[in-house]
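Quick note —
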Amino acid sequence: MKHDPHRPTWSRQIEFTLAGIGMAVGLGNVWRFPYLCYRSGGGAFLVPYIFMLVVLGIPLLYMELLLGQYMRRGPVQVLRNVCPLLKGVGLASVAISFIMCTYYNVVITWALYYMFSSFRTTLPWQDCNNTWNTPNCTSSPTNGSGAHTSTASQQFFNLKMLQRTSGLEDSGTLRWELLLILLLAWTLIYLCIFKGVKSTGKVVYFTALFPYVILLALLINNVQLPGALEGIKFFIIPEWDKLLSMEVWVNAAAQIFNSIGIGFGSLMSMSSYNSFNNNVLKDTLTIAIINSLTSILAGFVIFSAFGYMSHLQGIHIKDLAVDGPGLVFVVYPQAFATMPLAPLWAVMFFFMLLCLGLDSEFGMVEVMVTSLKDSYGTQLNRYFKRKELFVLAVCSVAFLLGIPYVMQAGIYVFQLMDHYTAIVSIMFLAFFEVIATCWIYGVKRLSDCLVEMTGKGANLYFKFCWLIAAPVLITVILVFSIVQFKPARYEAYVFPAWAQGVGWVIALASIIWIPLGAVHTLWVLPGTIMEKLRQSIQPFGLDVKSNMDLGGGGEIIYPAPPAISCEAKTEKFPIQTSL
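Predicted structure written out below.
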């Protein structure tokens, strides 16, 4: 296979592995995973979680990494080469990653705000003697505090940092402090990625590894607190009846997809900068297993704090108020407030969140940068003489799109986006990606690509998962997600009908590219409708004219149709298209 001589590569292969771990291990490991365990019967959630990791997570991550490494392109070009009819799946991956990076960075903004607020002798949420506190504030909640009281940490989050309004109907004013911190967050991201893999590869040595130092320090501290053992027992002892709930299994699959990043295109983009003969299986297992072990480690840290909080309040762990962002920005800070050296632990925890968030943000921004450079490299070079300027433009647009999240009603916008993007869109995206790669492109072709790169094809386990297990499971999960779909809500606030409509528009902003891509492919191909359909499910490389008509931008090196061989045929074409 002839390689693109201008394609940058990682300076060392360990840099890709660390970047992949950093991308997979993010805020979801500390936030979403413990929350799902808490809601799904503690240790019972680990059973479907590990099952989904083995049957879906590892095989599909392997598939994405090998295609990115083999074709040396981002998700748009890879899906277009694999199955022209479903080339919109690649575009949808870019869209969903860019949408997510605009609101994901808001969580980093909140972490920075809390970290800066922790540099004082007494944490601001440690007592109720502040200007933002209301008469119903309590700094020491107990079983008899009553339903109408709120903790000092709840009031700091809602009344001080967010200054939130009663709902989306009242947008409020701009929170200038948060806006400036959002700008700082995007500046940090730009400085880490503006040189591409050369700069990101150096940053991840710290951002991917340092969080483990803090997690271990927090765990050692937490297990010594009274009540910590009860929290850990709740985490590891299953409530087996919860396994009868289909929702628990769907949540486990969704966590695997969101955490590892299946369907987002981030790791596929990163693997496109690998050396062609890299052992991609080793990277797959390293990233997937470390990601899951980190989630479990974070579970011990969080649930030991839950046990401590239940001990202080005299209530069962099940009765702690945990909902969405409240886990890391209300419940855990509340635990810090009563620990020895509280400011030190708070600064360390929120700095850890910053590192975890930055790594994942690198991957989401890189999807957009890589895909646009792959597709429209020549055109972009006319306007941006240097890649650094193009990355600056992407970060600037994302910053502007993040402004609604730092309004006083920003938390409601955040919850709406998270619900319809992370839950609704990703399942549709994963379904069509699996159909395109596992069934249409085919298991044999995937295995042949591995043979060409590493000299060894896929084993029976991966072939079974690609051909049967993954498509069937994702189909079942998608159907259940649609049937059991629940409208977005935040705490007691139920979003109005018009807001739910906006949520579906947000979901369609990524999903719509799949049918649009299919229509465009069938429109430009010659022949009758049946001839068009036959051509549209053939990998690129069979016909020069079809390659040129279908387009994609830039000078692309197309692999030959792996039905004959996975060995690539190298034709370069200047291509233009709107899709």
